C-alpha cells in the first residue's frame, strides 16, 4: 500500500538552475513548507556556468552540504540520447525529443539525492500546462513511490510576472536587469537541443523571428561550400568524427558545432502536448539532426529488412512514451530491449555532406554490410538469385488476391 | 477455382514505352508466343512525347486499333499520389514511393485494356530482380485472376546488352545511337519523381555523380534567396499554390518546378527490396518533398492528437504495402479508409520557405484549427485549462508506476 | 476557447436508475447545487422495470416533464455492440467490454437531453476509482464541450454506507430492506453482460462464490446434451438464429438465453483499470461469448488473410479505446472505418455446439467463401497452385536470412 | 555472395520419421541424386517409438553412423514452447501454433547434423502446398545459407497414392497394411499438440468426425466432476503442478494428461496459410490450452498494464512470424527480447478448474502481485488514491475531445 504523505514535508530537493524563477521557488518552498531545501544543479550542456548557481544558493541560505552540482553531460548522451537515437525516434514525425529526453535524468538525480539526504519531497520549476511537469513527476513517482512532489507553478497564487518580481524583491532575491520584464519567449536547452516557445511564437501563422535562434546560424548565413564529414558507429552508437574517436558528449558537442555552422537542425513545429493541447515550438537540434540522418544511413546497409521495419513500426510509440514522460516504464524498457537487440552489427562509417541547413548522405560502408553488389546486378551470374524464383514468389503472394478477384467476378462486381 | 492457363496465349497487352527494351519485348512476344500484341503507352508525366511510341508500334507491325495511348496524369495524382500523401507515407523513413505508386495504375490500365480487347495476357518490361515486376503482377492478378502474365526478363535467354542489341538488329528494331552501349544507370520517371539505379550507383560508399540528376538542380546551384510559397489544402489534398487553384497534376507539376529550381528532393538511399536484397537508388522527388512537408504542417493544426498518432503508427505498414505492390489489397483499402476518415478538416494554408535543398515551414493557418492560443498561454485566465487538473492527471498516470516502484522496494531491488 | 463554467449550475441531467444510490445523488444535487434535476433512465436490457424509476423520481420531486425514460436496447446492440463485435474486440485478451460499451450511449443520451431541456450540467453515479466515470465524462465533454460534469462520489463527504443511509433517511428517500447493509459486491448489467466486483470478490486468490452469478447457470448444472445452433451473418452482423431473422436486441437476448442455459460466458478476471490500478471482476456475457466465437468463424472463411491480420493487429488498441472511454474519439472512429470496410462479405452461416460452458464451432458456410477446396487438396490438379511456385516463394523469402547467415559465417559467429 | 549450388549433392540429411512417406523419400533421394543419405529422427513427443525408425533406415541401406536419433522433448518445450507461451501467442486469435513451433527445432538439428557429417543438402517430407516446407527451409537457409534443400514433394512426378505405393513396392520398402489406401486425413503430432487436416476434414461446413481426435476425449465423455489444479510459474514459465516441480517436458506431458481427461483443447479451424490459401484443420492442444489460460492469469496480477498491453499489441505479429516460419529471424528475436524483458516477475500460482472442455481460472496469487486491495476498495482510506485526482485526470484526457467538440459546434455540425 502506498501511503499518501500529507504536505508537511521536512526536506525537499529542488531542481535548481540558479535563475530567477527557480530562486523564487527556492524561497517560496522555505516559506510555504517551512522546510529544508536542497538544491540540485546539473550541467546537461545547456551552456551556462554552474558556479553562479552555487553562489546564489548560498546567498539564499542553502547550507553548503545541501548544494549538489553535477556534470551529467556524458551520462546524458551515453545513457539517454544515444539509446533514443538507436530507435530513430521522432515525435510526430519530426521532433527529436531534445527536451523530453533530459527530464528523466534530472528526475532520477533528484530522487537519488533525496534518498541520500533523506528528503521526503522533490520540487521543480515546470509550469502547469506543459509536458515537463509530467516527465519530472512520473520519473520521481516511479523511482520513489512515496515521494511528495511539489510543483509550485500549480500551487502558488503568483499569477503574473509582476507578482513574481514583487515576491523576489520582497525576499531579497537578486533580479538580473533583463529578467524584470516578460521574456518574449521561454527557452530550454541542453547538449542535444535548445527549444523556445511562448509569446512571440504563439501565432503559428507567423514565421519565427531570427533572434529566437541561439544554437544555429541561419542557412542563408552558412558557408557557400559544403562541409563533408564522416561519422563512425559501433553497436548503433556514434564513436568517431572524421576518424577521431570521441566520448559521447564530446562527439555530440562537435556535431553541434558542425550543425551550427551549417545552419542545420532548425524546426518550427506545432505539436500535441500530453496534457491535451497543441503548442507551437521552435527547436534547434544541430548535432542531433546530423546524427539522426547518419544513424539511419548506417542502418540502411547493416540492418536486415525485418529488423528495420519492426523498428520503424514501433518507433512512434517509443517516441510517444519518451515525449509523455514514461522513460522509466516497463514498456519503454521492453521496447529498448527490442531496439538494442537489433544494433549489434550497426557499425561502420557514414559520409555526409552538410550544406546550408541540409544533411545529405553521400556514402556508407561497413564490415558488416548486408548490401551485396552481386545480388543487385542486373545481369544474372552464378549468384544466389534466380530470376525464375521471382515468378513463384509473386504467384504465391498473389494467390489470395486472385481468390478475392475470383469472388468479385463470381458476384459480378 | 482458378484455372491455370497454359502459355499458349492469343493476345497480350504490353506496357510499352516506345524505348528499345520494350520494343525488343514486343517483337519477342510476337515471335515466342506467336500472338497478337496490343500496346499500352501512358503519359504519367515521365517527360517524354508519346507520338514516337505510336509510330514505333506501327513500325513493329502493331495494328492501329491495338495501340492504346492515354494521358493518365490527372488520374495518377488525384487517385494515387494524393491518397498516399494523406498518409504521410514514407518507406523506410524517407522514400516517398515515387515508382511504387505508379505501377498499380499502369497495371490496372493493362487489365482494363485486356478486358476490352479480349486479351488473355499482359506483359511488362520489369526485370526479375526488382520490385516493379511484383507491383505489376500483383495488380494484374488481383484485377483479373485468370490473366497470364508474361515477364520476358524472367523468361528469355538474352543475357547481356550485346545479345539484346543483336536481337534488335536481327529484327529490324531501330536502335538509338546512345542505346547501343550499356547505360551507366537505369531511370524510372513520372510526375512524382525520377529514380536512378544500377551501374555507377552500385557502390553505396560512392557519392552519386552529379550527371545522374535530371529533375533538380543541385542545392549549390540554387538561388541564394529563399522562395516563399503558400499551399492550400482541402480534405487533406493540396488545391492551390499562392492562392491559385490548380488541378492535381498541374499543381504537382508546379511544385516540381519550384522544387527543381531550389534543389529540393534529392535522396540517396540504400533500401530493402521486397524480393529480398538491398539496393541503392537515387531519387528525385522535388514537388513531392515539398508536398509532404506541407501536408504534415497543415495536419499539425487541424488534426487531433489521437488521429495523428494513429496515422503515424500505421504509416510504415501502409508504405510497405504500397512499396511491395499491394495497392489493390483489402488491407491497403482498409488503411486508406482509416486515413481518409481523418482528413475531413485537414484544410487551410501552409507557408513554406524553399532554400537550397531545404523545405521549411514558416506558417500555417486554418479555419478548422485546433490550436487554441488561450489554452497554451502561460498565464492562466478564464480558460478551460486548470493547472490543478494536471496534478490529478499526473497522479493517476503515475499510479501503476508507483505500484511497480513499491514492488521493487519491497523486494529490495 | 472553452470557458470553464463555475459550478453554479442551473439544470442538471442525471443518469438515474431509480435505485438507492442515484436517488441519494438526486437529492444531493438538489440540495448542493440548488438546481433543477432532470432524470434519465434507460432500458439497456439490465433486466429491471423502468416504471418504479419514474415513480421514485416523481416522489423525489422531479417534474414529469423532467423525467426521461427510454428503451435503448435496439440502438445499443445495433450501433454499439455489433460494431464492436465486428472488431472481435477483447480487452486484455478476454474481456468482452460489456460495461464499457454501454457508457458512451448513456453519456450521449444525457447530452442530447441536456441540449433539449437546456441543461448546463450532467451527473452520474459512478465512483471515483472506476473506469465508468471516465467513460461517462469523456463522452459528455466530447459531445458538449462546455458541459459541467458533476460526479457526486468524487465531491461529497459521504464516506461510508452508514452515512449514505443516514442521508437517505434524513431526506425521506425510500430504502429497500436489502439495501441497508453493505452489498457483498456491486453489479452492472445490460443486454450484453452482467459484471460484479468488490467486497467478496476482492481477493483474487479466492474462487468467485456461486451466488454472485446472475446471468448464467453453472457449467455443471447445464444440460448433459449439447445444443446445436446456427447463426447467420450479413456484413459482419448477426441477423438470424436457426434461420429465424431477429432484430439486433432480440437476437442478443435469444443468445443470452442459450448461453445462460448452457453455462456459457463466465469470466473471472483481474484487469487493469484506466485509472491506474488492477481490479478483480467477474463477468457474465452469455450471448456475447457465443457471438464472438461465431463472428471469428464466419470471418475465417470470408475474410482475406491481409484483412484478417490487420484487424487482429489493431484490435487490442481498439478494445483499449473502448475500455478507456474513447468511443467518441477520432481514433476510434478511424479504426471503425477500417474495420467496417472489411465486413462487406462477412456473411453466411456458422454452426455451433454449446456444451457446459463451451462454445465449439462445428461448421461454417458462405456464398462469399474464400475457402477453395481445389486449392488445398493434396493431390495437384489443373488448379492455380503450382507446387514449384513454392520453391521460388521460399527462396526469395529466405534471401535476406541467407544474407544474414552469410554475414555470421564471415564473422565466424 | 551466396553461391547457388547446382543439384549434384553429395550427402543429404533427411528428416526421417520411419513412416512410409519418408522411407519412399529416402529411397528416391538415393536414386535421384545418387547421394549418401543421413537420417535424422527426433522424439518431440509425437508418441511413437524411435527404434523402428532405426531398423527401417538400416533396412533401406543407411550406414549406422549415418543414422541420428535424438530425444528433443526437453529442448523443445524449454527453448521453443515456453518462450512462445510467454508471448501468449495465438495465430488468428486461437491457434496455439503446435505444428509451427516444432519445425524450426527440427530444421536446426538437420543443419547441425549436416555440419557435423559434412552434408551439403537437407531434405524433408513436407508437401508443396503447406506451411511446413516454408518453416523447414527458412530455418535451413538461415542457419546454413549455402545449403541445398531438396523437397521431394515439389520435385518428383509421383502424383497419386497409387504411384507412391508402386514406387515403394518396386524398391522393397515395407508397407504397413493400413498405409496402402489413402489416409482419411493427415496428422502431425508432438508434445504440444496433434493436428489433422485433409480429406474428411476438407468441407468446413461438416463437423469433425469423432474418430479424428487422438489426444483428447470428448467433453461429453469427460468426468462430471471438475478437476482443480494449481500451476506455479517462475519468470514466465510453468515450473510445477500442484506443488510438484517438473521439468518442462514432464510438466507439459502432465498437463496433456489432465487436458486429455477433461476434453480440453480441441479446435476446429479454418486458417490462412502463408502460401496463400485457406485450409481447414483440427487441432488438439490439451496441455497447451491449459497453460495458455494459466499464463495469462499469472500475468494478470504480476504484469504492469503498460507491459501487458504492449505484449498484446505485438502478439499477432509474433505469432504470424512463428506461423510463417521465421523463428530464426532478427525480428522474432527482437520481439522475444521485448517479451522476455517483461517476464522477470511473472511468478506465482494459478488455480484452475478443468471441466468438460473448459479451463476456468479460479484463483491466482504471487509474491510479486501488483494487485493492491487497498487501491480498489470502494471506501477511501489513507491510501495513495485520491478521488479528486480522477477529476483532473479526466479533464486533461478530455481536453482534446472538447477542443474537437468546440470546432464542430463552431462549424454548426
UniProtKB/TrEMBL annotation, chains A, B, C, D:
<comment type="similarity">
    <text>Belongs to the argininosuccinate synthase family. Type 1 subfamily.</text>
</comment>
<feature type="binding site">
    <location>
        <position position="195"/>
    </location>
    <ligand>
        <name>L-citrulline</name>
    </ligand>
</feature>
<feature type="binding site">
    <location>
        <position position="125"/>
    </location>
    <ligand>
        <name>ATP</name>
    </ligand>
</feature>
<feature type="binding site">
    <location>
        <position position="131"/>
    </location>
    <ligand>
        <name>L-aspartate</name>
    </ligand>
</feature>
<dbReference type="GO" id="GO:0000050">
    <property type="term" value="P:urea cycle"/>
</dbReference>
<dbReference type="InterPro" id="IPR048267">
    <property type="entry name" value="Arginosuc_syn_N"/>
</dbReference>
<dbReference type="GO" id="GO:0005524">
    <property type="term" value="F:ATP binding"/>
</dbReference>
<dbReference type="InterPro" id="IPR024074">
    <property type="entry name" value="AS_cat/multimer_dom_body"/>
</dbReference>
<keyword id="KW-0055">Arginine biosynthesis</keyword>
<dbReference type="GO" id="GO:0000053">
    <property type="term" value="P:argininosuccinate metabolic process"/>
</dbReference>
<feature type="binding site">
    <location>
        <begin position="15"/>
        <end position="23"/>
    </location>
    <ligand>
        <name>ATP</name>
    </ligand>
</feature>
<feature type="binding site">
    <location>
        <position position="186"/>
    </location>
    <ligand>
        <name>L-citrulline</name>
    </ligand>
</feature>
<keyword id="KW-0963">Cytoplasm</keyword>
<feature type="domain" description="Arginosuccinate synthase-like N-terminal">
    <location>
        <begin position="11"/>
        <end position="174"/>
    </location>
</feature>
<feature type="binding site">
    <location>
        <position position="135"/>
    </location>
    <ligand>
        <name>L-citrulline</name>
    </ligand>
</feature>
<comment type="subunit">
    <text>Homotetramer.</text>
</comment>
<dbReference type="Pfam" id="PF00764">
    <property type="entry name" value="Arginosuc_synth"/>
</dbReference>
<keyword id="KW-0547">Nucleotide-binding</keyword>
<feature type="domain" description="Arginosuccinate synthase C-terminal">
    <location>
        <begin position="185"/>
        <end position="402"/>
    </location>
</feature>
<dbReference type="GO" id="GO:0005737">
    <property type="term" value="C:cytoplasm"/>
</dbReference>
<feature type="binding site">
    <location>
        <position position="131"/>
    </location>
    <ligand>
        <name>L-citrulline</name>
    </ligand>
</feature>
<feature type="binding site">
    <location>
        <position position="127"/>
    </location>
    <ligand>
        <name>L-aspartate</name>
    </ligand>
</feature>
<dbReference type="InterPro" id="IPR023434">
    <property type="entry name" value="Arginosuc_synth_type_1_subfam"/>
</dbReference>
<feature type="binding site">
    <location>
        <position position="283"/>
    </location>
    <ligand>
        <name>L-citrulline</name>
    </ligand>
</feature>
<keyword id="KW-0028">Amino-acid biosynthesis</keyword>
<feature type="binding site">
    <location>
        <position position="132"/>
    </location>
    <ligand>
        <name>L-aspartate</name>
    </ligand>
</feature>
<comment type="pathway">
    <text>Amino-acid biosynthesis; L-arginine biosynthesis; L-arginine from L-ornithine and carbamoyl phosphate: step 2/3.</text>
</comment>
<protein>
    <recommendedName>
        <fullName>Argininosuccinate synthase</fullName>
        <ecNumber>6.3.4.5</ecNumber>
    </recommendedName>
</protein>
<feature type="binding site">
    <location>
        <position position="100"/>
    </location>
    <ligand>
        <name>L-citrulline</name>
    </ligand>
</feature>
<dbReference type="InterPro" id="IPR018223">
    <property type="entry name" value="Arginosuc_synth_CS"/>
</dbReference>
<feature type="binding site">
    <location>
        <position position="42"/>
    </location>
    <ligand>
        <name>ATP</name>
    </ligand>
</feature>
<dbReference type="GO" id="GO:0004055">
    <property type="term" value="F:argininosuccinate synthase activity"/>
</dbReference>
<dbReference type="InterPro" id="IPR001518">
    <property type="entry name" value="Arginosuc_synth"/>
</dbReference>
<dbReference type="InterPro" id="IPR014729">
    <property type="entry name" value="Rossmann-like_a/b/a_fold"/>
</dbReference>
<keyword id="KW-0436">Ligase</keyword>
<feature type="binding site">
    <location>
        <position position="271"/>
    </location>
    <ligand>
        <name>L-citrulline</name>
    </ligand>
</feature>
<dbReference type="InterPro" id="IPR048268">
    <property type="entry name" value="Arginosuc_syn_C"/>
</dbReference>
<keyword id="KW-0067">ATP-binding</keyword>
<dbReference type="Pfam" id="PF20979">
    <property type="entry name" value="Arginosuc_syn_C"/>
</dbReference>
<feature type="binding site">
    <location>
        <position position="95"/>
    </location>
    <ligand>
        <name>L-citrulline</name>
    </ligand>
</feature>
<dbReference type="GO" id="GO:0006526">
    <property type="term" value="P:L-arginine biosynthetic process"/>
</dbReference>
